[in-house]
Amino acid sequence: MADGYTLCHTSRGVMQEVADAMSRVADTVAAALAEDLGHDAGGGEPAFPAGCDGTTCFLRLNRYPACPFAPDTFGLVPHTDSDFLTILCQDQVGGLQLMKDSRWVAVKPRSDALIVNIGDLFQAWSNNRYKSVEHKVVANAKAERLSVAYFLCPSYDSPVGTCGEPSPYRPFTFGEYRRKVQDDVKRTGKKIGLPNFLKQSPVDAMNHGLCF
């Protein structure tokens, strides 16, 4: 029992260190992107993203077992992340793919780099100047894949806001967004996401060049 107890607390400590380090990376990247959009937290504006702290963000460990039916099997189905930013550390097995120019592009693993994904909330906050990236994971036939993902999320009652007006989106909170995603998945089997919160109908938005 003593050895198991020690291992548990050692692992918890390591994961807390990883979460803290990824949190610093996420905050730094978010601040740089916000500054690029004209948001200056040093001029009296609140820090971006608002409502995010150690109690609202989370770390996820992912394990994808080897699959003899790869590459026709998804380790993770195509989707976008429902957060501001995702910081991802993947092993050398690979399998992550991003949608770019209407085709899937494999992300080559690098041991000296982290991957940063723009999430739905940042797309909304940036008025579509930054786009939430659609991605998936394909299985590997011979090796399991491991990854660690940190999700920069606000509290459920936090308004997502905007970097400036006019915004194509009506005001909404993170809680509203998550509930709508869950309702859509139950009702249609898939996530609809940001088009639900457009001030215009999705058809009108497409006509004005707001593609999703």
UniProtKB/TrEMBL annotation:
Keyword field: Iron, Metal-binding, Oxidoreductase
Transmembrane segments: none
Keyword S-adenosyl-L-methionine: no
GO molecular function: metal ion binding; oxidoreductase activity
Positions of the Fe2OG dioxygenase domain: 53-154
Matching InterPro entries: IPNS-like_FE2OG_OXY, IPNS-like_sf, Iron_ascorbate_oxido_reductase, Oxoglu/Fe-dep_dioxygenase_dom
UniProt xrefs under SUPFAM superfamilies: Clavaminate synthase-like (SSF51197)
Keyword Metal-binding: yes
Family to which the UniProt record says this protein belongs: Belongs to the iron/ascorbate-dependent oxidoreductase family.
Protein's UniProt name: Fe2OG dioxygenase domain-containing protein
Source organism of the structure: Aegilops tauschii subsp. strangulata
Organismal lineage: Eukaryota, Viridiplantae, Streptophyta, Embryophyta, Tracheophyta
